[in-house]
Design brief:
By secondary structure, the protein is mainly β. Helices cover about 5% and strands about 45% of the residues. It contains one helix and 28 strands. The strands form seven sheets. Strands 1-28-27-26 form a four-stranded antiparallel β-sheet, with no helix packed on it. Strands 2-3-4-5 form a four-stranded antiparallel β-sheet, with no helix packed on it. A four-stranded antiparallel β-sheet has the order 6-7-8-9, with no helix packed on it. A hairpin with a 4-residue loop joins strand 3 and strand 4. The longest helix is centred in the N-terminal third of the chain and has 15 residues. It is globular. The two termini are about 30 Å apart.
């Protein structure tokens, strides 16, 4: 399939660009970024917005195997698809008031998502065909979701206090978290193939080994920091945000933690994503900003175009033909828009 071929090419461009491993600010890449799509052009920080129907409340966002941007629309109970040109298509969910939260592309060529209010995980094909799978126990509250390297999909259960695994056929297995009432939230796959997750109330970073289901936990240095979103970095470490501690964190596979304070107080840190510049980017729900942190820990913040939009989700932009989109894309929950911000300058 062309979409998977293009995705592999784009991924190779990201991982192979030596500048991505540098700790210098992204502006240093502006004059030499051949892997970035030239259209549209702009300087770092240039922004644009795509309007959605009123009441959509976009939350999670990712790039699908079809190289389109996909979003969960919690307010309208839909999954949305957005092209680089701004064309929006919406797909209604079968279960009413499902409260779709986060979504991820998986190795089966589909996207998977969580339905917080109805204890289900869903699958949607690039053509928009939706299938839902019920979890074994009520009151699980599935939230974060990620694709494993083993072909399965993993998700967090906030009130169930478990990590769930669902096969492409919809078979669900659950793994208990050692810390009671830890409220697992964000989840990602590390470069080591393990499943890393955050514990909002447990104040820990957890690691699940897919092979045997064992779980390890690492206590964070800042008490009651409230870790939420989590992603792998290009430096081999795992990066996360602390919603209550107002810091961006980095943890090595050995469990060594480093924390970086965000300049804006009480910014409401939420989602994280890699950018086409190789840096880690994040959103500030209360600060109404998108931020960038370099490998060296230098933080830059960009105020959003529209006030009080409550940015919620964040993703690397969709790849073009043999090039990477030079933006990060984000959801504006209260603005009912999809925003994008240029992370690498282009002519």
């Amino acid at each position: 399939m062309r979409s998977f071929s293009s995705l592999l090419v784009a991924s190779s461009l990201v991982l192979g660009a030596p500048a991505f491993a540098a700790s210098t600010p992204s502006e240093s890449l502006s004059a030499s970024a051949p892997w970035v799509c030239r259209q549209p052009g702009g300087v770092v920080g240039t922004q644009g917005e795509i309007a959605l129907p009123v009441g959509s409340e976009p939350l999670g966002i990712t790039v699908g195997p079809d190289l389109k941007v996909w979003v969960t629309l919690a307010g309208s109970n839909e999954i949305g698809r957005v092209t680089r040109e701004g064309q929006v298509t919406r797909f209604a969910l079968p279960t009413p008031s499902a409260s779709p939260q986060n979504l991820t592309p998986a190795l089966d060529g589909n996207l998977w998502f969580t339905e917080l209010s109805v204890d289900q995980v869903g699958r949607i094909t690039p053509a928009g065909v939706v299938t839902e799978f019920s979890l074994p126990e009520r009151g699980s509250s599935p939230f974060g979701i990620t694709a494993g390297l083993d072909g399965n999909v993993y998700f967090t259960e906030v009130t169930g206090n478990r990590i769930g695994r669902v096969t492409p056929q919809g078979v669900v297995t659950e793994y208990a978290i050692p810390t009671p009432a830890s409220q697992p939230r964000g989840i990602t796959v590390g470069v080591d193939g393990h499943i890393w997750f955050t514990e909002l109330a447990g104040n820990k970073i957890g690691v699940l080994t897919p092979k045997d289901g064992s779980v390890r936990e690492f206590v964070l240095p800042t008490p009651d920091s409230g870790p939420t979103a989590i992603i792998p970095g290009l430096d081999g470490a795992i990066w996360f945000v602390e919603q209550f501690g107002n810091k961006v964190g980095r943890i090595t596979p050995a469990g060594v933690v480093t924390e970086y304070a965000v300049p804006t107080p009480d910014s409401g840190l939420s989602a994280l994503s890699l950018g086409a510049d190789g840096n880690v980017w994040f959103v500030e729900q209360f600060g109404n900003k998108v931020g960038r942190i370099t490998r060296a820990g230098a933080i830059t913040e960009f105020a959003l175009l529209t006030p009080d939009v409550f940015p919620a989700g964040l993703t690397l932009g969709p790849a073009g033909f043999f090039c990477l989109d030079g933006n990060v894309w984000f959801t504006e929950r209260f603005g009912d828009r999809i925003g994008k911000l240029q992370v690498v300058a282009t002519p």
